[in-house]
Specification:
alpha+beta; 5 strands
Length: about 110
């Protein structure tokens, strides 16, 4: 499955492996999320700012610990795949992450 990008700039940032967090828009297009990027870099600044070898795409399902709400995020650095307020599940690819996301959301909806 080809990823859709909100803008060419978002795609450029991801392909150049600039450490960042990307989320899906309502139109299912990936876009850089500046606020989340800052938050995740603050949590993991030591590795993100120093370890260039860890730059790679990580397709993740991020589950907020306070609300249990799962969300897909694309990280462009392995060091970003940790946060004190979230459970982060790294998947092999986008399709696998989307499948897991659907499962997590179904469980959440069924529990209510």
């Amino acid at each position: 499955m080809d990823l859709k990008w909100m803008t060419g700039y978002d795609q450029f940032l991801a392909e150049e492996l600039i450490p960042a967090v990307f989320v899906l828009s309502h139109e299912a297009e990936l876009r850089v999320d500046v606020e989340r990027t800052r938050d995740f870099v603050r949590e993991n600044s030591e590795s993100v700012l120093t370890d260039r070898a860890a730059r790679k795409w990580c397709h993740c399902v991020v589950v907020d610990r306070a609300t249990s709400w799962p969300q897909y995020m694309l990280f462009t650095h392995k060091g970003l795949c940790a946060h004190s307020r979230a459970e982060i599940i790294v998947c092999d690819d986008f399709v696998t992450a989307q499948s897991l996301l659907e499962e997590k959301r179904a469980l959440l909806y069924n529990a209510q």
